[in-house]
Design brief:
This protein has 151 residues and is an alpha+beta fold. The chain has one domain. 13% of the residues lie in helices and 23% in strands. Strands 1, 2, 3, 4, 5, 6 and 7 form a 7-stranded mixed sheet that branches. It is globular and about 55 Å long. The N and C termini lie far apart (81 Å). About 15% of the residues have low confidence.
């Protein structure tokens, strides 16, 4: 019979294999006004604003680098969580392909290709998905400079 210490060393391996792994993507349904933005914050105009009931594939999540009202979808909201939507440039807007979302592959993240950032509050009410558990972490949100003229 194997020593007890040898058997105990296998327990962590068993528990890890039984834990659910994050999905490569989830399909979500949008709220009535669901802006999808270039960056994971509210500073720039949306790349696209989806209507109600649009089905989108989200592949990972991140937290906005702006930890004030600009990092949330609404001033009265409390979430800074943004989801990466893979779009493949197929939404038909004339200027859409000229302004794809800014991913973070260059920083070693998982958000890349044509896509944009959708705030978790834009996902249809009644969805009780914990995106941090269900999806992979994208990596740090991409940074950008916001410049305002000083007078």
């Amino acid at each position: 019979m194997a020593p007890l210490t040898n058997l105990l060393s296998f327990l962590p391996l068993l528990s890890r294999s039984s834990q659910a792994k994050p999905s490569p993507y989830l399909t979500v349904t949008t709220e009535q006004q669901a802006p999808c933005r270039t960056y994971a914050d509210g500073m720039h105009a949306p790349v696209h604003s989806f209507g109600s009931g649009v089905k989108l594939n989200v592949s990972c999540w991140t937290i906005s680098t702006m930890q004030d009202s600009k990092g949330k979808l609404n001033d009265d909201g409390d979430s800074f969580l943004w989801l990466w939507v893979q779009l493949n440039g197929t939404w038909g807007e004339p200027g859409f392909q000229a302004r794809p979302g800014v991913g973070n592959l260059d920083q070693g993240g998982k958000a890349g290709g044509d896509g944009c950032w959708l705030h978790e509050d834009s996902v249809q009410e009644g969805t009780s998905t914990d995106f941090e558990e269900a999806l992979q972490y994208c990596g740090k949100a991409p940074h950008h400079q916001v410049i305002a003229p000083h007078q």
